[in-house]
Amino acid sequence: EGGGWRRGSQLHSLDAMPNLDVKALRYMSSDEFRVLTAVEMGMKNHELVPTSLIESISGLKRGGAFKYVKLLCRNKLVAHQSKPYDGYRLTFKGYDYLGLKTLSKRGTLGAVGIQIGVGKESDVFTVSTVEGEEVCLKLHRLGRACFRTVKNNRDYIRQDQHASWLYLSRLSALKEYAFMSALYSKGFPVPKPIDVNRHCVVMSLSMGYQLNSIQQLRHPGKVFDTLMQLICRLASYGLIHCDFNEFNLMVNDEEKVTLIDFPQMVSTSHPNAEDYFDRDVECIRTFFRRRFGFVAAEVPRFTQDVSRKHTLDVDLAASGWTSAASADFEQLHSLARSEEAGNHEEEEQDGGWDGVAGGRL
């Protein structure tokens, strides 16, 4: 899992790409999107959105709204439920369409390519801009493995956030974009952030391979030192990754490193900062010993080797990534991770992708 990575040029003919079907999106009417958006808006304070509310929000008459809702159901963009009351909810596919439509209207995306990454919390695709540049699209899906868990623990969610998986996935995308933008602006080796909407993050593609997939390095000691320096440099800016491992790092043919995922990053002011720092260091140390037979003589220590020189954590707290949003995200994400096993929604019910062709937006 991760964003902003590639193994090589894989942007094939845009009329024959698997995994993300956007053909229907191109032919959807403005009224269909009005109804789809109405369902999304209704889910801000309704677990299921009744037809009457869809009519009110969309501004369409009863017959028209109902007709489009049925069409959206047929295309698995919304799902109908009769319990605990009759209404409709947005599916993952419907949320994807809303995000893709907005990014297309902004001129950020011109076509969707193939899937290059998948995990419990995200799907990653190659996409192209309207100018034809190949970039990366990451769709956050934190509700995929834990929707029932979050849904059944309403005490952990703000009262107005009934659509927990929508909210959690959007917060995850906003957090990634905020941190990626801040790190990129300071010259850290991360993908270039391009745009964000809802649960969708667009970023540059990075050449290379996940460290986890690499069996041999020409200079393991040099790469190890680079990673230790990166952990320390993050800390000098007031940040600790908290999940610094072989799955969140890319290494290219020149053995240059790119950090591609940072969902749990915290401030060095966190009460457990030293423990998190030491855990990141030990994770890489253990991996290099087991995979490459490289044993580090010394490793950095938080109290001895970290000198805080910048306040990027404070700057982020003052940006669009607010403390309230951060608190909500950490609370929901912690709950989701603790009970995610076995809580999978069926693909048919959630309107998942059918592995069919992508295409122009």
Question: What do you see in this structure?
Answer:
This protein is α+β, with helices and mostly antiparallel strands and 361 residues long. It contains 12 helices and 14 strands. It has a domain at 209-338: Transferase(Phosphotransferase) domain 1 (Transferase(Phosphotransferase), domain 1). Mean pLDDT is 82; it is low at 1-18, 146-162, 339-350 and 352-357. Strands 4-5-6-8-7 form a 5-stranded antiparallel β-sheet, with helices on both faces. It has a 3-stranded antiparallel β-sheet with strand order 10-12-13, with helices on one face. A two-stranded parallel ribbon has the order 1-9. Helix 2 (30-42) packs across helix 3, helix 3 packs across helix 4 (62-74) and helix 8 (220-236) packs antiparallel against helix 9. A hairpin with a 5-residue loop joins strand 12 and strand 13. Belongs to the protein kinase superfamily. RIO-type Ser/Thr kinase family. It catalyses: L-seryl-[protein] + ATP = O-phospho-L-seryl-[protein] + ADP + H(+); L-threonyl-[protein] + ATP = O-phospho-L-threonyl-[protein] + ADP + H(+). Its EC number is 2.7.11.1. Residues 352-361 have a biased composition (Gly residues).
In brief, what are we looking at here?
It contains twelve helices and 14 strands. It is an alpha+beta fold and 361 residues long.
